[in-house]
Please model this.
Amino acid sequence: MTVKESIKKNPDGIIARAYAFAEKSHKGQSRKNGEAYFNHALAAANNVASWNLDDESVAAALLHDVVEDTDVTLEKLKREFGEEIAFLVDGVTKIGKIRYRGIENQVENLRKMLLALSEDIRVIIIKLGDRLHNMKTLSSVPREKQRRIALETMEIYSPIAYRLGMQHLSGELEDLAFPYIYPQEYTWLKKEVKDAYEKRAKYLERVKKALLQELQKNKLHPLFIDFRAKRYASLYKKLLRYDMDINKIYDLVALRVIMENVSECYAALGIVHNLWPPVPGRIKDYIAMPKPNGYRSLHTTIICLDEVITEIQIKTKEMHEEAENGIAAHWLYEQTKGTGKNMQKRSISPDKKELQWVEQLRNWQKEFSNPEEFLDSLKIDFFRDRIFVITPRGEVRDLPVGATPIDFAYQIHSDVGNSCSGAKVNGKIVTLDHQLQSGNVVEIITQKNKKPSSSWLNFVKTAGARNKIKSALKGSDSLAAPTKLARIEFKITAEDKLGLLKDVTTIISRAHVNIVSVNTGGQGASKFHVLKILCDGINKDKAEKLAIKLKSVKEIKELSYKFI
Ligand code: MN
Model:
């Protein structure tokens, strides 16, 4: 249902109210192409609506730029539309501030950070609706911004859509980004592929006829058969692996057969193979073994009419819709059919570590049988142990919750950690034990010849930082001490006497032992003092002799020492 249709159906509903509010708030604003700004919000909301999200999400999509681009505050939104919608809008605003700066090896973390910051899967889906419309209107954006946005779409948003099972959207985003990132390749491909596409489409029209006849003869009635050309972006990637030879791409245009149920899918596969021989090793049963993102279908490559190698995909309507809408489709399914028992059969093999988080998401979706519970389950809390922070250069660092600037500094490099003298978070100075939050931009201030402080050990969170601090502390001691001797602490209990401390330290100095620190325990009314003297550059022998000398001091009643 489109936004307009929803409003017609329920003129006083939340969508109608959000529409009126957003239209009024954006009044007078226009986008770079001269179009009214509100049209963008409406287009984003229509995208969200087309993925069958709930009314709150559609309303939030209508309002998604209101806080960022008009003087409406989040508080006002909360008052007008309640916590939930305000939360969704705030989430979209927050993740909109994250920028991909083209740093390799950071994309996976950046994707995770986006999800962690979203907190609710609906936030990221609204963001995808926003991004889809921005990509469609990218040509009116200044050229220097185009590439950055296209790259971000290709590297971050398209893969997120894919992992959420929204294959169609993922492919669409990639295709929209492709010409901006590879303009020359795009021109070449379009020219190269045009004839091939047309020829294939004509050919598949014949295949479709022959196949339909044969299926019907066997009392199988597909819901529909169609074919869709492979998208430019994925074709280009594939061509790179196939010597740029378009004749080696068998799924340039693939035939899709949509059947009523799973057993009919397998029956249809049998008929296809009976009609045309399959190419060995090219039969893929993603129904029995879905792809990690949940994609299900039967794929086979056959030697078809006129000996042309052709790919055929067979799936149910439900699988087809799921491939289009992913998690959103699943959600709708849960909402409309209650238990969704077909979904329970799903088994997803977690073969790739990097896909674990989608695994978690899906597994945990399965545990819920009613829509309210499922809605709760959309909260992204599987990153609750991790935070994602950004370096001033835009790199993303993954740290445990509670991590401090010191942890961050040591993760960058031990030298940065060792010479850390201060830190800034989002441009403001913070203390070194400050707890970092996801999305923070963290900058470390270093100072030459600075040494780590042992007090850091009290608040660092990562084992890495802890170990590096300890080894740096040890390292600096051995530099300070003339020999690689041990460290000893003398504990002296002595009667109070003027000049006692001076007598004790003089004896120690004469023995050529360094005093690192002296700790005098104030004993208040007691006539005894407890001194703790930390010494360097000493071995057991020396310590023994020194102890004897110290005991000769009349006031010292008790003396012990231990190696530290
Ligand atoms: Mn927007």
Q: What stands out?
A: The first strand starts at residue 224 and ends at 229. The CA atoms of residues 53 and 328 lie 6 Å apart. Residues 331-358, 363-382, 478-483 have pLDDT under 50 and may be disordered.
